[in-house]
Amino acid sequence: MGNTETPMLELVDVHKSFGDVDVLKGISASISKGELLTFVGPSGCGKTTLLRIIGGFTPITSGKIILDGEDIADLPPNMRDTKMVFQSYALFPHMNVRKNIGFGLKLKKMPQKKIDDRVDELLALVHLEGLGDRTIERISGGQQQRVALARSLALEPKVLLLDEPLSNLDANLRVVMRDEIRNIQERIRITTIFVTHDQYEAMSISDRLLVLNDGIIQQIGSPSDIYETPDNRFIAEFVGYVNFLEGKIESFDQDSSGLFLVSTEYGDISLNKINEKNFDKGDDVFLVIRPETVTLFPSDAEDMPNMLKGKIQHSMYAGNLVKYTIKCGDREILIDQYNPKDSIKFRCGDNIKFTVPRTVHAIPKRG
Amino acid sequence: MAEAVAGNDQRSLLYKIRIFVNSHLINMFAGGLFALLAIFLAFPIVMVFIKSLWGDDGFTLGFYQEFFSYNFYYWSFLNTMILGLSAMVILVVVGFCFAYMTTKGPNWLRKPLKVCALMPLCAPPYIFSISLITLFGRNGMVTNFFDLNFNIYSWTGVIVAQCLAFLPLSYMMIENVLNSQNPSLEESASDMGASEFTIMRAITIPLAAPGVLKAALLVFVMTIAEFGNPAILGGRIPFLAPDTYLMITGEGDFNMASVLSVVLMVPCLIIFVIHNYMLKGKGYTTIVGKPTAVDPKDMTPLIKYSLLAIVIPVAIMVLLSFAVIVMGAFVKIVGVDNTFVIDHMLNMQSNTAIFNSVKLSLLAGLFGAIVGTLLAYVIMRGKFKGRKVMEMMALSGFALPGTVIGVGYIMAFNRPPFLLAGTIWILILNCAFRFLAVGVEAGISKLHQISIEIEEASADLGADFITIFFKVILPIMFSAFIAGFIYTFMTTMMSLSSVIFLVTPGFDLAAVYIYLTAQLGELGLASAATVKMMLIVVICFASLKLLAKKTGLDVIEK
Ligand SMILES: Nc1ncnc2c1ncn2[C@@H]1O[C@H](COP(=O)(O)OP(=O)(O)O)[C@@H](O)[C@H]1O
Ligand SMILES: [Mg+2]
User: What is the structure's pLDDT at A2?
Assistant: First the structure.
């Protein structure tokens, strides 16, 4: 065994096909105890399917689901130690809040007194004190969400599964509930898988993200890994706006300074050591340039390394930043300049210079 | 890593069995239900087919040959078809007129006409035989009053009785179609200068056509399958349903009875298939978004009076029929000796029959509702192949003529391993399975409203199939369960065609009692029993309406 800590949940080469459509094509990943991992990816990429396979609602085509050391792939949902919060909440309409939360405990034949105590504890945890006797129709959407969460937590599952839990809430409530879910999760340190198609939601709630597309894992990593050092174009674009600059590795100096020189159509760019990728001299690469990493200078500024020339084509003032569209050669580059109050303001048609930081990330052109 | 995983092969046998049971419980239930459907619906029908082809010397087509070579037999078939077609044509026209008047006619007429059109629902179809005999029989009120020489035991009698009996079916379906037409279509046609007659001809009728066709087919099936009216009023005219009965009670010829049954069943099954598969989803949806309420317009006088000329006499006939039945229950002999008597109502034999019927209906209703609810659940939520077949089997009881199932039951259950003949069980099972369709459909439509995630959540929280069914599904589906119960109760109360084959002497049922007394001309006794039966049925309807109001689940409209 490589690492000392056994993962709470391990997916081993999970495949799933519906008929002859392969939805999941070999997913392997592991989640450690107490971690919040988010499955994120565009709609239809198989997030729900993967979550339902873990919960036992969708049979697996092949592969293993190892929960705390035991392969549970062939167990029905009622024999798995995972609990799911459904997108529709799936609260029982004929029971009140308390009965809903206590449902699983009652099935376990826990004495009523203990159920009552546990339900009280959970009501407090999700801030629903005093609403226990309400019927489900008589509480709001956000409160229903909390009941669903409490109901799943009641049984102290090994892994909590949440499928787009915020999608039925309106925008403001979504942020509140997001923070609250994270808060509760950190407090009771429950291993959690969260599914969303919203990359900002994913980045702000997770310990790690699992980016899914085309039925395969595109990348697993912390939010900053994913945003700052994406493995490929898909991920780079999925988590935020990005300018790609095509280039070729000219010099390859791996020992002392660790600098690389990448030549582009618009000028040479030197970068710090290029990650762990096995680049070679002559490789074609894309430079991943996030709009907020670029610095703008007037056209008469002194030349500096990594400085390119361009012309302001369009600008949009948004209070905390100005969004500039720069014409550079025959292509457009988007630049965000924060704190406009203390920066030089450029107008349309102004010739400018801009610098790309040495920390810029490069990805191979192929793949 | 691999060595840390408890291999699935090392799990104990008990644990493996537990996994299997938990994962397949719903399928096991499905298997059980499938077996029930196979034994109590398919098996009797198969028996009928076999008996029609299997004589003392093995396989033979001889019985069919016999059928087609004797006047008496094939006329029985032709007459039945003629009866079905005539009733169908008449009822489409009359049903349309009623539906048009109650949806577009003058406001003050709508309610009373609707009541008249629906009234026959709360009485068994054969009530009209009794009322027609009371009115037009040899000693009938009308016959005597006008001194007519009129024979009600004739084609006219049978057709009129059938049309009155199945008016609600035709009316409800056509009214439903007209109600779902977008009034703006007619308004815009009228805006472009079309007269009411043109609108009716160019818009209303063509748009209603697919729905009306469905109604027509159902009327056809119901009228050819009906036993009571042709049996009581048919006199010497051969019809399939009563002939099947005579073939068994009179001649004890099960082979020929089976042939007649097959011949009756084939058109019914064809129409069932057309209805369920070819016409499914056919029909025009003209309302997009919210229907707009429109003020009733005045009808063109010519149209109004032509429709009224059809509608009013029919409405009067319906009212008159009910009136003479109620009267018949309380006077000595209607039209002959109108002195008040209570004897008919107090008749012991009749009360015992009613009591037996209630008992049977309660049991059949309960059994049918349980099986129906379970079936709906398994059909909707099971993950096995053959759910469609199961649904079709469950619904087919509705399409199969009662006489055919009755014949099938006596042949299928009169010997081990299913020796049920002579017990109340054969009656309970017969009624429960014949009328399963409504409970199943109500259950299915209720389940459509329940998100499947509710059940998944229950399983997730540790519930197995049985717990989910009783703790979560049944409470939510309770209204469908009750609807299935009341419907089965009600139809079992009135049903005659199947049970008449299965009752044993000494165990009278209300429907059979009414039929036999009507046959014997004991109209007072027949009327009195009918009145009591109607009271019970009306209570059932009221409960169903209340249920619909409370839960939005309307089985009557179907
Ligand atoms: N029961 C099913 N039968 C057939 N195809 C399905 C089924 N469930 C999901 N799919 C397909 O699998 C793909 C992934 O679906 P899903 O997991 O729901 O995506 P996501 O949750 O990422 O939006 C989709 O293309 C969907 O159409
Ligand atoms: Mg999804």
Answer: 43
CATH number for B269: 1.10.3720.10
Distance of alpha carbon B19 from alpha carbon B438, whole angstroms: 35
Question: Which single residue is written with the structure tokens 């429960």?
Answer: B432
Both B119 and B241 in a single domain? Answer: yes
Give pLDDT < 50 ranges for chain B: 1-4, 289-291, 558
Substitution site in A16, A18, A162 for ligand 1 pocket (most atoms within 8 Å of beta carbon): A18
Which residue type is seen at B96?
A: F
| CATH number, span A241-364 | 2.40.50.100
- Residue B354's domain comprises 24-58+345-510
- pLDDT above 70: residue A4: no
ipTM (interface predicted TM) = 0.79
pLDDT score recorded for residue A276: 54
In a shared domain, residues B256 and B351? no
Interface test with B, best of A68, A71, A78 (most B CBs within 10 A): A78
Residues B28, B115 within the same domain? no
Are B76 and B137 in a shared domain?
Answer: yes
CB contact under 8 A, A83 and B460: yes
Considering the domain architecture, whether residues B144 and B31 belong to the same structural domain is answered as: no
Q: Min CA distance, B467 vs chain A (Å)?
A: 9
* DSSP at A292: G
Query: Is the minimum distance from the CB of A46 to ligand 1 under 6 angstroms?
Result: yes
Answer yes or no: is B535 within a domain.
no
For residue A43, which atom of ligand 1 is closest to its CA?
A: 23
Q: What is the pLDDT of residue B7?
A: 53
Residues B52, B96 within the same domain: no
| Of residues A107, A105, A125, the one with CA closest to residue A116 | A105
Could you report the per-residue pLDDT of A264-315, keeping only the tens digit for each?
A: 888 888 887 665 566 777 888 999 999 999 999 999 988 888 899 999 999 9
Q: Which of A80-84, A177-181, B182-186, B351-355 has the lowest mean pLDDT?
A: B182-186
Q: Would the CB atoms of B461 and A83 count as touching at under 8 Å?
A: yes
Name the pLDDT band for A215 (thresholds 50, 70, 90). Answer: very high
Same domain as B205, residue B77: yes
Q: Is A9-232 a domain of CATH 3.40.50.300?
A: yes
Closest Cβ opposite residue A75 in set B7, B19, B476: B19
Q: Tokens 């027609």 — which residue?
A: B132
Query: Ligand 1 atom closest to Cα of A58?
Result: 1
> Which atom of ligand 1 lies at the shortest distance from residue A46's CA?
17
In a domain, B333, yes or no: no
Report which bound ligand comes closest to the CA of A22.
1
Q: How far is B6 from chain A (nearest CA, A)?
A: 5
Token digits for B384?
């096995």
CA distance B5 to chain A (A): 5
| pLDDT, position B3 | 43
Q: Is residue B531 part of a domain?
A: no
| Domain boundary assignment for chain A | 9-232, 241-364
**Structure tokens of B326?**
């109620």
Do B181 and B91 fall within a single domain? yes
Q: Is A97 exposed, middle or buried (0-12, 13-18, 19+ CB in 10 A)?
A: buried
DSSP symbol at B401: -
Q: How far is the CA of A44 from the centre of ligand 1 (A)?
A: 6
A107 and chain B in contact, CB less than 8 A: yes
- Which chain B residues are within 8 Å of A87, Cβ to Cβ? 453
Name the packing angle between helices A171-188 and A141-153 (round to 10°): 20
Q: Does B462 touch chain A (CB under 8 A)?
A: yes
Closest residue by Cα to atom 17, ligand 1, is: A46
Q: Which two tokens stand for residue B143?
A: 């016959």
Instruction: Judge whether B5 lies within some domain.
Output: no
CA distance A156 to A190: 8
Looking at residue B409, its pLDDT comes to: 94
The single residue listed with the structure tokens 């040959």 is: B65
